[in-house]
Amino acid sequence: MLELLGNNSWVVDKVLVATWETIYMVLISTVLSYLFGLPLGIILVTTAKNHIMENKGLNRVLGSIVNAARSIPFIIFLILLIPLTRFVVGTPIGTVASIVPLTIAAIPFVARMVETSLKEIEWGLVEAAVSMGANNSQVVSKVLLPEAMPSLLLGIAITAINLVGYSAMAGIVGGGGLGTLAYYYGYQRYEDTVMWITVIVLIILVQGVQMLGDNLAGKIANKRR
Amino acid sequence: MIEIKNLSKIYATAGQQVLALDDVSLAVKKGEVFGIIGLSGAGKSTLIRCINMLEKPTQGSITVDGREITSLGMGELRFARQKIGMIFQQFNLLSSRTVFDNVMFPLEIAQVPRAEANKRVQELLELVGLTDKAGMHPGQLSGGQKQRVGIARALANGPKLLLSDEATSALDPQTTRSILKLLKDINRQLNLTILLITHDMNVIKEVCDRVAVISNSRIVEIGDVLDVFSNPQTSTSRSFVNAVINHEVPAELLHSSTERNGETTTRLIRVSFIGASAGQPLISSMVRRYNVDVNIIYGNIDRIKDTPFGNLTLEIIGHPQLLQEAFDYLRGQGLEIEVLTNA
Description:
The structure holds two protein chains of two kinds.
Chain A: H1 2-5, H2 10-46, H3 56-70, H4 74-80, H5 82-89, H6 95-119, H7 123-131, H8 136-147, H9 149-172, H10 178-188, H11 192-224
Chain B: E1 2-13, E2 16-28, E3 33-37, H1 44-51, E4 59-64, E5 67-68, H2 74-82, E6 84-88, H3 99-109, H4 114-127, H5 143-155, E7 161-165, H6 173-189, E8 193-198, H7 201-207, E9 210-215, E10 218-224, H8 225-230, H9 235-244, H10 251-256, E11 260-261, E12 264-274, H11 282-290, E13 293-304, E14 307-318, H12 320-332, E15 336-339
Helix pairs in contact in B: 3-4, 3-5, 4-5, 5-6, 11-12
C-alpha cells in the first residue's frame, strides 16, 4: 500500500485524520442514540398488548413516530436537520455538527433493534419475576436487559456499522471524516488512490466493529450455555 | 389458607368470549397439599394463575392467608406475591444468572440486605441439594436440577403458600418422583401449604391430601385423595383414576363367572382395602373359615401419599349361604366389597 502511495505521503496524514474523525462521529452518535433509543425501545416493548405496562395509545403513537422517522432517507434527514444542528452546535458543518443528524437518524433504528431483542425473551421469565412481586423497573433491569444482552450487543454493532455508512454520507455535505476525504479527493479531483484507500479503511472499520460485537455476544452466550 | 369464592374468568378474544372458569369455589387448608387435576384446556392453569393474580379474575374473590388478593392495590399485591412462591413447568430460570444468583433474585426484589440474603441462599441450596452447583448457569443443569433451583427460588422469601404449575410435567418419571418427594419434604418441614395443578393422577397419588377434579371450566369433584381413588363419583374422575388403577373388569370375565355348578355358586367381587387392613391376611382367613375357593383375577397394591391402598378382583366359589357370610366377614373387617356379578 505504501508503494502505491509513492511520494504522496500527505495522503497518509489525511487518511489518518479522516479515520479518527469517522470513529469519533460514530462512537459519539452510537452512545447518544442508545441514550435515547434504549429507553424508547423498552417503552415500545413494555407498553405493547399484555405486557407489563400495557398502554395502547402510547404504544401506537410512539410506534408511528418511529416508523415515520425511519422512512425518511438519511440524506434528506441531513438537510431537514440543518436548522436544529445550527441551533445545537452553532454550525451545520464539521465533525461535531454531523453528530446531531447521525444521532437523531439512529434513535428510531436503535429503538426497533432494542424492541426486537427484548421481544425474544420468553414471557415465562417475565411472569416468574412478576409472580415474585417484581415491579416494572425490576422486570426491565433484572430480567429483560440482562437476558437480552447478547442480542443487544449485536444490535449495537449493527447500529455502529450503519452509522459508519451514514457518516460517509454526512461527509459529502461537509461532515468531515472518510466521506469528505473520498468526496473531495476521490470524486472531485479524480484521485483514485484516495478513493480506494478510503474504501479499504471503511471495510476494516466495519469488519472490526462486527467482530467485536460477535466476540462479546458470543462470550456471554457461551458462559450461559 | 386459600379461599376461592364464585370465581369466573372470561377471555375476550377477537369478538369471541371464552369461559375459562365457571363459578369455581374452593378452600385449601393450611399445611395441606391440594391437587387440581384436569385435562389441558379444562381451566386448571387459569385457576392457579388467578391465585397470585397473574390472571385477573372476571368475577369472584380469592383470599390467601386472610388477605383478599383480588381487592389489593398494585403495591400491596407485589408485597403479597413475595409471600406466595410459584414453580413452573418450564422452570423459568434466568439464563443470565448463576444458580446462586437465581435463588438470590426474589431476595433482591424484596430488598433483603445482602449478607442476610447470601446466608439464605446457602440454606436453600442445601435444602434442595444443589450446594455444589451454585456457580453454574441453568443451561448446564438437568431438568430435575433446574426444578430444584426453581423450588429454592420459590421458597426464598419464606412463603406460606407454594403454587406449582405443572412443575413435573416436563420431567421423566424418575425425576418426577424425586421432585415430588422434595415437595412432600418441604410441606412437612416448613408446614408449607402447596397447591398444585397437574394432568397426571400419579402426582396426585404421590403427594396430595385432597384433590379437586376440574372439567370444562368447572370443579366436578372434590375430596380426600383416598376417597376419590377408592370411589370416584364422576366419569372424569373415574377416567383419571383408571389411568393409575385398573377399575374395569373385562366383559368376558363377568360373563364366565355367572355359571352355576350344582351346590356351588361363583361370584366375582372387588375388594378394596385402605390402610392398616392391607397388611393382614384377611383373604386366607376367609377361605379357612367359610370353606370357599378363591381365584385371583387381578390384584394391585399401591400407596396413596403414605397410605397403602389395594384392589383385588376375586372369583369366589362356594355355597351361596357361606358366600354371603364370607362377604359379611370381610365387610366386618373394614374392607369395601363390591359384588360385580349377581347370578
